[in-house]
Amino acid sequence: MPPRKKRPVRKTSGQKKDVRRSISSQKRAKAKRVKKKYDNPLVPWNLEAGTTFSMLNLFQECREQAFQSYVNGYSGRKLKDGLEFGSIWHLCQEHYYNDTNQSASTVAAKCCHAYEKFRSKTIFKNEHENFQLLLAMAEMLFPLCVKYWHDDDQEIDWVEPEQKFKTPYTFTDLDGKPRTIFLRGMRDGVFREGGVLGVFETKTKSVVSEASIRDQLKSDLQTLIYVTTAMIELGEMPEKVMYNVIRRPGQRRKQGETISAYINRVKAEVIKKPKYYFMRWNVDLTKSDIANFRRHTLDPLLVNFCQWADALKKTGALDGKPEKRFNTPFHFLNCSALVGRYGRVDMFDLLTKKTSTAYIKRKSCFPELDESNQAM
Questions:
Q1: CB–CB of 212/79 below 8 Å?
Q2: Measuring CA to CA, which residue among 57, 80, 60, 74 is closest to residue 130?
Protein backbone atom coordinates (compact mmCIF):
# COMPACT_ATOMS: atom_id res chain seq x y z
CA MET A 1 0.00 0.00 0.00
CA PRO A 2 1.26 3.55 -0.69
CA PRO A 3 2.18 5.58 2.41
CA ARG A 4 -0.62 7.68 3.89
CA LYS A 5 -0.46 11.35 2.97
CA LYS A 6 -0.65 13.82 5.84
CA ARG A 7 -3.55 16.21 5.85
CA PRO A 8 -2.39 19.73 5.03
CA VAL A 9 -2.84 22.45 7.60
CA ARG A 10 -3.78 25.43 5.50
CA LYS A 11 -1.62 28.55 5.55
CA THR A 12 -3.67 31.75 5.54
CA SER A 13 -1.03 34.44 5.76
CA GLY A 14 -0.33 34.86 2.07
CA GLN A 15 1.64 31.72 1.22
CA LYS A 16 0.03 29.21 -1.10
CA LYS A 17 2.05 26.20 0.04
CA ASP A 18 0.44 23.81 2.51
CA VAL A 19 2.01 23.64 5.94
CA ARG A 20 2.96 20.10 6.99
CA ARG A 21 4.09 19.00 10.43
CA SER A 22 7.65 17.67 10.33
CA ILE A 23 8.73 17.50 13.97
CA SER A 24 9.30 14.02 15.36
CA SER A 25 6.93 12.93 18.09
CA GLN A 26 9.91 11.43 19.90
CA LYS A 27 10.79 14.91 21.17
CA ARG A 28 7.61 15.19 23.20
CA ALA A 29 9.09 14.54 26.63
CA LYS A 30 6.66 13.46 29.28
CA ALA A 31 8.07 16.10 31.62
CA LYS A 32 6.70 18.79 29.37
CA ARG A 33 3.17 17.61 30.13
CA VAL A 34 3.34 18.38 33.83
CA LYS A 35 0.51 20.82 34.47
CA LYS A 36 1.01 23.95 36.51
CA LYS A 37 -1.47 24.39 39.32
CA TYR A 38 -2.73 27.83 40.20
CA ASP A 39 -5.28 28.52 42.88
CA ASN A 40 -8.44 30.27 41.72
CA PRO A 41 -8.87 33.23 44.11
CA LEU A 42 -12.13 33.53 45.99
CA VAL A 43 -14.86 36.13 45.60
CA PRO A 44 -14.76 39.08 46.16
CA TRP A 45 -12.17 39.85 43.50
CA ASN A 46 -9.31 42.28 44.09
CA LEU A 47 -6.55 43.55 41.84
CA GLU A 48 -3.90 41.33 43.44
CA ALA A 49 -5.75 38.32 41.97
CA GLY A 50 -5.03 39.56 38.45
CA THR A 51 -7.45 39.40 35.55
CA THR A 52 -8.50 37.19 32.64
CA PHE A 53 -9.57 37.78 29.06
CA SER A 54 -13.20 37.23 30.06
CA MET A 55 -13.03 39.81 32.84
CA LEU A 56 -11.31 42.38 30.63
CA ASN A 57 -13.82 41.77 27.86
CA LEU A 58 -16.79 42.22 30.19
CA PHE A 59 -15.15 45.32 31.72
CA GLN A 60 -15.00 46.87 28.25
CA GLU A 61 -18.68 46.16 27.69
CA CYS A 62 -20.01 47.23 31.08
CA ARG A 63 -18.21 47.91 34.34
CA GLU A 64 -21.26 47.17 36.47
CA GLN A 65 -21.66 43.76 34.82
CA ALA A 66 -17.97 43.05 35.47
CA PHE A 67 -18.45 44.04 39.12
CA GLN A 68 -21.50 41.81 39.58
CA SER A 69 -19.79 38.85 37.94
CA TYR A 70 -16.30 39.03 39.41
CA VAL A 71 -16.67 40.97 42.67
CA ASN A 72 -20.11 39.75 43.74
CA GLY A 73 -19.68 36.38 42.00
CA TYR A 74 -22.94 36.15 40.04
CA SER A 75 -23.31 33.78 37.08
CA GLY A 76 -26.42 33.24 34.99
CA ARG A 77 -28.07 29.81 35.23
CA LYS A 78 -29.49 29.94 31.71
CA LEU A 79 -27.99 27.44 29.28
CA LYS A 80 -26.16 28.90 26.27
CA ASP A 81 -25.55 26.19 23.70
CA GLY A 82 -22.35 27.58 22.18
CA LEU A 83 -20.62 28.40 25.46
CA GLU A 84 -21.74 25.17 27.11
CA PHE A 85 -20.57 23.00 24.22
CA GLY A 86 -17.24 24.82 24.18
CA SER A 87 -16.72 24.21 27.90
CA ILE A 88 -17.48 20.49 27.53
CA TRP A 89 -15.16 20.22 24.53
CA HIS A 90 -12.26 21.95 26.28
CA LEU A 91 -12.66 19.65 29.27
CA CYS A 92 -12.37 16.60 27.00
CA GLN A 93 -9.43 18.10 25.15
CA GLU A 94 -7.60 19.03 28.36
CA HIS A 95 -7.80 15.50 29.77
CA TYR A 96 -7.10 13.67 26.52
CA TYR A 97 -4.02 15.61 25.39
CA ASN A 98 -2.29 15.15 28.74
CA ASP A 99 -2.03 11.46 27.85
CA THR A 100 -2.85 10.57 24.26
CA ASN A 101 -2.43 6.85 24.99
CA GLN A 102 -5.92 6.94 26.47
CA SER A 103 -9.03 6.01 24.54
CA ALA A 104 -10.64 9.21 23.29
CA SER A 105 -14.07 7.62 23.67
CA THR A 106 -13.39 6.76 27.31
CA VAL A 107 -12.07 10.24 28.05
CA ALA A 108 -15.09 11.87 26.40
CA ALA A 109 -17.52 9.66 28.33
CA LYS A 110 -15.82 10.36 31.68
CA CYS A 111 -15.57 14.11 31.05
CA CYS A 112 -19.18 14.40 29.89
CA HIS A 113 -20.38 12.44 32.91
CA ALA A 114 -18.33 14.61 35.27
CA TYR A 115 -19.48 17.82 33.59
CA GLU A 116 -23.11 16.69 33.78
CA LYS A 117 -22.77 16.05 37.52
CA PHE A 118 -21.11 19.42 38.04
CA ARG A 119 -23.47 21.54 35.93
CA SER A 120 -26.89 19.87 36.04
CA LYS A 121 -27.74 21.12 39.54
CA THR A 122 -27.41 24.76 38.47
CA ILE A 123 -29.46 24.85 35.25
CA PHE A 124 -33.23 25.19 34.93
CA LYS A 125 -35.32 22.01 34.78
CA ASN A 126 -36.78 22.87 31.38
CA GLU A 127 -33.25 22.98 29.91
CA HIS A 128 -32.14 19.52 31.03
CA GLU A 129 -33.07 17.77 27.77
CA ASN A 130 -31.15 20.30 25.71
CA PHE A 131 -28.23 19.90 28.10
CA GLN A 132 -28.32 16.12 27.59
CA LEU A 133 -28.25 16.70 23.83
CA LEU A 134 -25.14 18.90 24.09
CA LEU A 135 -23.38 16.30 26.23
CA ALA A 136 -24.28 13.50 23.82
CA MET A 137 -23.10 15.58 20.86
CA ALA A 138 -19.70 16.27 22.46
CA GLU A 139 -19.29 12.63 23.55
CA MET A 140 -19.96 11.46 19.99
CA LEU A 141 -17.95 14.15 18.18
CA PHE A 142 -14.75 14.25 20.26
CA PRO A 143 -13.48 10.72 19.43
CA LEU A 144 -14.18 11.31 15.74
CA CYS A 145 -12.11 14.50 15.84
CA VAL A 146 -9.24 12.73 17.64
CA LYS A 147 -9.32 9.91 15.09
CA TYR A 148 -9.31 12.35 12.17
CA TRP A 149 -6.23 14.22 13.45
CA HIS A 150 -4.49 11.23 15.06
CA ASP A 151 -1.55 10.85 12.67
CA ASP A 152 -0.98 14.60 12.48
CA ASP A 153 -1.12 14.95 16.27
CA GLN A 154 1.57 12.31 16.66
CA GLU A 155 3.99 14.61 14.88
CA ILE A 156 3.30 17.77 16.89
CA ASP A 157 6.17 18.70 19.19
CA TRP A 158 4.21 19.93 22.22
CA VAL A 159 6.01 22.46 24.39
CA GLU A 160 2.93 22.67 26.62
CA PRO A 161 -0.43 20.87 26.54
CA GLU A 162 -3.60 22.71 27.55
CA GLN A 163 -2.31 24.75 30.46
CA LYS A 164 -3.44 27.32 32.99
CA PHE A 165 -1.23 30.37 33.21
CA LYS A 166 -0.68 33.19 35.68
CA THR A 167 1.78 35.57 34.04
CA PRO A 168 3.07 38.86 35.50
CA TYR A 169 2.65 41.56 32.86
CA THR A 170 4.27 44.99 33.19
CA PHE A 171 2.99 48.15 31.51
CA THR A 172 3.36 51.89 31.99
CA ASP A 173 0.68 53.44 34.18
CA LEU A 174 -0.80 56.95 33.95
CA ASP A 175 1.92 58.39 36.18
CA GLY A 176 4.61 57.11 33.81
CA LYS A 177 5.75 54.42 36.23
CA PRO A 178 5.84 50.68 35.54
CA ARG A 179 3.01 48.61 36.96
CA THR A 180 2.55 44.85 37.01
CA ILE A 181 -0.64 42.79 36.95
CA PHE A 182 -1.21 39.04 36.64
CA LEU A 183 -2.77 37.93 33.36
CA ARG A 184 -4.50 34.60 33.87
CA GLY A 185 -6.24 32.07 31.67
CA MET A 186 -6.08 28.68 29.99
CA ARG A 187 -4.15 28.15 26.76
CA ASP A 188 -5.06 25.20 24.55
CA GLY A 189 -1.40 24.45 23.92
CA VAL A 190 2.00 25.69 22.77
CA PHE A 191 3.91 23.72 20.14
CA ARG A 192 6.96 23.87 17.92
CA GLU A 193 6.89 23.18 14.19
CA GLY A 194 9.96 23.38 11.97
CA GLY A 195 11.75 25.19 14.77
CA VAL A 196 9.02 27.83 14.97
CA LEU A 197 7.01 28.35 18.15
CA GLY A 198 3.24 28.47 17.84
CA VAL A 199 0.08 28.70 19.96
CA PHE A 200 -2.66 26.10 19.51
CA GLU A 201 -6.13 27.63 19.75
CA THR A 202 -9.37 25.66 19.61
CA LYS A 203 -12.64 27.19 18.48
CA THR A 204 -16.03 25.47 18.51
CA LYS A 205 -18.47 27.24 16.22
CA SER A 206 -21.83 26.60 14.61
CA VAL A 207 -20.90 28.88 11.68
CA VAL A 208 -17.32 28.72 10.40
CA SER A 209 -15.68 31.33 8.21
CA GLU A 210 -11.97 30.77 7.63
CA ALA A 211 -11.51 34.26 6.21
CA SER A 212 -13.27 35.84 9.17
CA ILE A 213 -11.20 33.98 11.77
CA ARG A 214 -8.00 34.73 9.86
CA ASP A 215 -8.76 38.43 9.50
CA GLN A 216 -9.81 38.80 13.12
CA LEU A 217 -6.63 37.34 14.62
CA LYS A 218 -4.80 40.65 14.89
CA SER A 219 -7.76 42.10 16.78
CA ASP A 220 -8.57 38.98 18.79
CA LEU A 221 -7.99 40.01 22.41
CA GLN A 222 -8.19 36.46 23.76
CA THR A 223 -5.74 34.82 21.36
CA LEU A 224 -3.27 37.70 21.47
CA ILE A 225 -3.24 37.62 25.29
CA TYR A 226 -2.40 33.91 25.02
CA VAL A 227 0.41 34.67 22.56
CA THR A 228 1.77 37.54 24.68
CA THR A 229 1.82 35.56 27.92
CA ALA A 230 3.45 32.57 26.19
CA MET A 231 6.15 34.94 24.89
CA ILE A 232 6.81 36.29 28.40
CA GLU A 233 6.91 32.83 29.98
CA LEU A 234 9.07 31.14 27.34
CA GLY A 235 11.27 34.09 26.39
CA GLU A 236 10.44 33.56 22.72
CA MET A 237 7.71 35.01 20.55
CA PRO A 238 5.24 32.56 19.03
CA GLU A 239 5.29 33.26 15.31
CA LYS A 240 2.01 31.63 14.45
CA VAL A 241 -1.35 30.48 15.75
CA MET A 242 -2.73 27.12 14.69
CA TYR A 243 -6.51 27.31 14.72
CA ASN A 244 -8.17 24.00 15.56
CA VAL A 245 -11.79 24.54 14.54
CA ILE A 246 -14.69 22.23 15.30
CA ARG A 247 -17.97 22.92 13.58
CA ARG A 248 -20.86 22.26 15.98
CA PRO A 249 -23.47 20.29 13.97
CA GLY A 250 -26.61 22.24 13.30
CA GLN A 251 -28.99 19.63 11.92
CA ARG A 252 -32.50 20.05 13.25
CA ARG A 253 -33.90 17.36 15.48
CA LYS A 254 -37.00 15.76 13.95
CA GLN A 255 -40.28 15.76 15.82
CA GLY A 256 -40.45 12.73 18.09
CA GLU A 257 -36.81 11.81 17.39
CA THR A 258 -34.94 10.51 20.44
CA ILE A 259 -31.61 12.02 21.42
CA SER A 260 -29.91 8.70 20.59
CA ALA A 261 -31.45 8.52 17.11
CA TYR A 262 -30.60 12.16 16.45
CA ILE A 263 -26.96 11.71 17.53
CA ASN A 264 -26.59 8.60 15.37
CA ARG A 265 -27.97 10.48 12.37
CA VAL A 266 -25.55 13.35 12.91
CA LYS A 267 -22.66 10.92 13.49
CA ALA A 268 -23.25 9.29 10.10
CA GLU A 269 -23.06 12.73 8.49
CA VAL A 270 -19.82 13.64 10.32
CA ILE A 271 -18.18 10.34 9.34
CA LYS A 272 -19.18 10.98 5.72
CA LYS A 273 -17.81 14.57 5.66
CA PRO A 274 -15.15 14.92 8.39
CA LYS A 275 -13.36 17.78 6.61
CA TYR A 276 -16.49 19.87 6.94
CA TYR A 277 -16.52 19.50 10.72
CA PHE A 278 -12.81 19.36 11.62
CA MET A 279 -10.49 22.06 10.27
CA ARG A 280 -7.05 23.45 11.05
CA TRP A 281 -5.03 26.28 9.59
CA ASN A 282 -2.04 28.39 10.53
CA VAL A 283 -1.90 32.17 10.74
CA ASP A 284 1.49 33.89 10.96
CA LEU A 285 2.38 36.63 13.45
CA THR A 286 5.18 39.20 13.38
CA LYS A 287 6.92 41.18 16.13
CA SER A 288 5.14 44.31 14.94
CA ASP A 289 1.76 42.57 15.32
CA ILE A 290 2.44 41.90 18.99
CA ALA A 291 4.02 45.31 19.58
CA ASN A 292 0.98 47.04 18.06
CA PHE A 293 -1.39 44.90 20.11
CA ARG A 294 0.39 45.80 23.34
CA ARG A 295 0.71 49.49 22.53
CA HIS A 296 -2.71 50.12 21.01
CA THR A 297 -4.91 47.65 22.90
CA LEU A 298 -3.61 45.73 25.89
CA ASP A 299 -1.62 48.43 27.70
CA PRO A 300 -4.27 51.19 27.41
CA LEU A 301 -6.95 48.68 28.43
CA LEU A 302 -4.98 47.68 31.54
CA VAL A 303 -4.40 51.34 32.47
CA ASN A 304 -8.17 51.92 32.44
CA PHE A 305 -8.85 48.63 34.20
CA CYS A 306 -6.42 49.38 37.05
CA GLN A 307 -7.75 52.94 37.34
CA TRP A 308 -11.21 51.46 37.86
CA ALA A 309 -9.97 48.89 40.37
CA ASP A 310 -8.01 51.52 42.33
CA ALA A 311 -11.09 53.76 42.49
CA LEU A 312 -13.28 50.88 43.72
CA LYS A 313 -10.69 50.06 46.36
CA LYS A 314 -10.79 53.63 47.69
CA THR A 315 -14.58 53.52 48.05
CA GLY A 316 -14.46 50.27 50.02
CA ALA A 317 -16.46 48.43 47.34
CA LEU A 318 -13.83 45.69 47.17
CA ASP A 319 -13.70 45.32 50.95
CA GLY A 320 -17.20 44.23 51.85
CA LYS A 321 -19.07 47.42 50.92
CA PRO A 322 -20.26 46.81 47.34
CA GLU A 323 -22.97 49.47 47.70
CA LYS A 324 -20.17 52.08 47.66
CA ARG A 325 -19.12 51.27 44.09
CA PHE A 326 -21.02 54.18 42.53
CA ASN A 327 -19.17 56.65 44.75
CA THR A 328 -16.57 56.97 42.01
CA PRO A 329 -17.11 58.29 38.46
CA PHE A 330 -14.93 55.48 37.16
CA HIS A 331 -17.72 52.98 37.80
CA PHE A 332 -21.01 53.07 35.90
CA LEU A 333 -23.71 50.95 34.31
CA ASN A 334 -23.58 50.93 30.51
CA CYS A 335 -27.25 50.79 29.52
CA SER A 336 -26.34 50.12 25.89
CA ALA A 337 -24.71 46.85 26.93
CA LEU A 338 -27.83 45.34 28.53
CA VAL A 339 -29.11 44.02 25.21
CA GLY A 340 -26.52 42.44 22.95
CA ARG A 341 -26.34 40.76 19.58
CA TYR A 342 -28.23 37.72 20.83
CA GLY A 343 -30.75 39.51 23.01
CA ARG A 344 -30.70 40.28 26.71
CA VAL A 345 -27.37 39.72 28.43
CA ASP A 346 -26.90 37.39 31.40
CA MET A 347 -27.05 40.21 33.93
CA PHE A 348 -30.20 41.85 32.53
CA ASP A 349 -32.66 40.75 35.25
CA LEU A 350 -30.14 41.32 38.02
CA LEU A 351 -29.45 44.88 36.92
CA THR A 352 -32.92 45.97 35.80
CA LYS A 353 -35.28 43.99 38.01
CA LYS A 354 -32.95 43.60 41.00
CA THR A 355 -33.81 39.90 41.17
CA SER A 356 -31.22 37.17 41.60
CA THR A 357 -33.41 34.05 41.21
CA ALA A 358 -31.96 33.28 37.78
CA TYR A 359 -28.39 33.37 39.08
CA ILE A 360 -25.96 31.38 41.19
CA LYS A 361 -23.27 32.89 43.39
CA ARG A 362 -19.83 31.45 42.80
CA LYS A 363 -17.16 31.03 45.42
CA SER A 364 -14.28 31.61 43.01
CA CYS A 365 -13.47 34.68 40.95
CA PHE A 366 -12.77 33.16 37.56
CA PRO A 367 -15.31 30.53 36.42
CA GLU A 368 -13.36 29.87 33.22
CA LEU A 369 -10.46 28.56 35.35
CA ASP A 370 -12.66 26.59 37.72
CA GLU A 371 -14.98 24.52 35.57
CA SER A 372 -12.62 21.66 34.72
CA ASN A 373 -11.37 21.28 38.28
CA GLN A 374 -14.88 21.26 39.73
CA ALA A 375 -16.17 18.89 37.07
CA MET A 376 -13.37 16.34 37.40
A1: no
A2: 80
Cα of 113 vs its chain's centroid, Å: 21
Number of H helices, E strands in the chain: 13, 13
Torsions phi, psi for 5 (to 5 deg): -80, 140
Q: Using pLDDT thresholds of 50, 70 and 90, give the confidence band for residue 13.
A: very low
Distance of CA 317 to the CA centre of its chain: 29
The DSSP line for 244-258 is: EEEEPP-PPPPTT--
**Between the CA of residue 103 and those of 26, 93, 111, 200, 324, what are the distances in Å?**
20, 12, 12, 22, 53
Output Rg (C-alpha) for the chain, integer angstroms. 22
pTM for this predicted structure: 0.88
pLDDT at 3 over 60: no
Please check whether residue 48 is in contact with residue 181, taking contact to mean a CB–CB distance below 8 angstroms: no
What is the C-alpha separation between 275 and 230, in angstroms, rounded? 30
Report whether 76 contacts 347 (CB < 8 A): yes
Rounded to whole angstroms, how far apart are CA atoms 64 and 55? Answer: 12
CA dist 360 to 62, 81, 109, 276, 374, Å?
20, 18, 27, 37, 15
Instruction: Give domain limits for the chain.
Output: 10-33+77-299
pLDDT at 7: 54
